[in-house]
Specification:
- Helices cover 39% and strands 14% of the residues.
- By secondary structure, the chain is of the alpha/beta class.
- A 6-stranded mixed beta sheet has the order 1-7-6-12-8-9, sandwiched between helices. A 4-stranded parallel beta sheet has the order 4-3-2-5, with helices on both faces.
- Helix 2 packs antiparallel against helix 3 and helix 11 packs antiparallel against helix 14.
Length: 417
């Protein structure tokens, strides 16, 4: 289990038994020389559409949150080009926006291993015969990314674009809209990005960690990638662990047990009240024996989303914590559709009322009604993700709900996440 403490500059590059824990193998703040020494060269001239079956064999899924099959996205972009009357060469975008407040893995990756991301972007570009390549990044990582691009002759065509520091700036259509217009707002567009995205061209948007794995698969093969993790969740992923001491980035195997990951981060399991898995659009869980995997079937599985694990101490109130998150999400919406403009603020008001003293038992029913009402009706995934968070809170903190409605909740709380 590779551990990188986000607050510091050192990187522990210890590998697991499968030898796959090496995203940060080049060390802290790695330049091109350190990168090439650690990873060796990659033969870009040999990469073409024939790399897509290699990705398929690896079963790599996106690491940005949606966990969609990476090879399918790449293949769809190739098909999207063929579907146009006047085929335009595709666009590939490395998405490092990371608007999720509890996530810092992508910023850390771009700061310490930008060349691995660049390798992945160049490989994906050749696989779909792209003519335009972008790295879309949060301002904090931009200096490292720009310096890395400037070091490389093969990266001269890559354009680095700053992402807005908003929650929804990393949504795929918002990424395209931001690069095109400067407005990081999701597009309510029926056309698929793989057919018509940036400048009307087939567009492939991949998370920066996904591209780092693409670079490793191109070097070592799909079998090597599958040497870690499980059959249903192969490979490794980066996770941001926060809430107990300093924030840390860990590289963990797919299907890892939540308790093992937390222990690896130095968390005292006896002090854990609940864990928010997947971030603000994720789920609260209390079963620390559950496994982190985006795919089933199987019981005791929770989707890690963008790799966010936030620990809530047992002394803290989960309802108050969720109310603060929900208030943030209501204000973070694009305000382009009814569920976001009206549904999310209404949900936030009701949950805050329950968390902070209103004893009306009808409030729970109203919150459940609103949660069902916004689901599946938004212009983007924001209402759905918010509804998932609220539903999990009502389930996991059901005893806290009863205590609040009776006026007996005595948990001490922190006022921020």
């Amino acid at each position: 289990m590779t551990i990188l403490e986000a607050a510091g500059s050192s990187v522990d590059t210890a590998r697991g038994s499968a030898g796959t824990f090496q995203i940060f193998a080049a060390g802290s703040n790695a330049g091109l020389a350190e990168h090439e020494q650690a990873f060796g060269p990659v033969s870009l001239e040999k990469i073409d559409a024939g790399f897509i079956p290699v990705l398929e064999e690896s079963d790599l899924t996106g690491r940005g949150g949606a966990a969609f099959s990476s090879w399918r996205k790449v293949a769809a972009t190739v098909r999207g080009r063929g579907a146009t009357l006047l085929p335009a060469k595709p666009v590939v975008i490395a998405n490092g926006a990371e608007g999720e407040p509890l996530s810092f893995k992508d910023k850390t990756l771009l700061a310490h291993a930008p060349h691995l991301v660049i390798d992945g972007l160049l490989i994906a570009g050749r696989a779909v015969s792209a003519s335009l390549l972008y790295i879309y990044t949060a301002p904090a990582a931009m200096p490292a990314v720009e310096a890395a691009v400037a070091e490389r002759r093969d990266a001269r065509k890559i354009k680095v674009v700053g992402a807005a520091e908003t929650f929804i700036s990393g949504e795929a259509s918002a990424v395209v809209n931001s690069i095109a217009t400067g407005l990081a707002l999701p597009l309510d567009n029926r056309n698929r990005l793989s057919e018509a995205g940036l400048k009307g061209r087939p567009t492939l948007v991949l998370n920066v960690e996904t591209l780092a794995h693409v670079a490793l698969i191109a070097r070592h093969g799909s079998g090597w990638f599958r040497g870690a993790g499980s059959e249903r969740d192969p490979g490794t992923r980066l996770v941001s662990v926060s809430g107990q001491g300093a924030g840390q980035i860990l590289e963990v195997e797919g299907d890892a047990r939540l308790c093992d990951v937390l222990s690896g981060a130095g968390v005292d399991l006896g002090t854990v009240g609940a864990v928010l898995v997947g971030g603000y659009h994720g789920r609260w869980v209390r079963d620390l024996d559950c496994r982190l995997s985006p795919s089933g079937p199987g019981e005791n599985v929770v989707n890690p989303g963008a790799g966010v694990l936030h620990v809530l101490p047992a002394r803290n109130c989960g309802l108050e914590a969720t109310a603060r998150i929900l208030d943030y999400l209501a204000h973070a919406s694009a305000k382009q559709c009814g569920p976001c403009m009206f549904g999310l603020p209404a949900m936030a008001r009701v949950l805050s009322a329950i968390a902070y003293g209103d004893r009306n038992p009808q409030l729970v029913l109203e919150l459940e009604r609103l949660t069902k009402l916004v689901g599946g009706r938004g212009a983007c995934h924001h209402p759905d993700g918010t509804a998932q968070l609220v539903s999990s809170a009502l389930e996991i903190f059901s005893e806290d709900v009863k205590a609040h409605l009776s006026g007996t909740c005595t948990r001490q709380t922190r006022r921020s996440l």
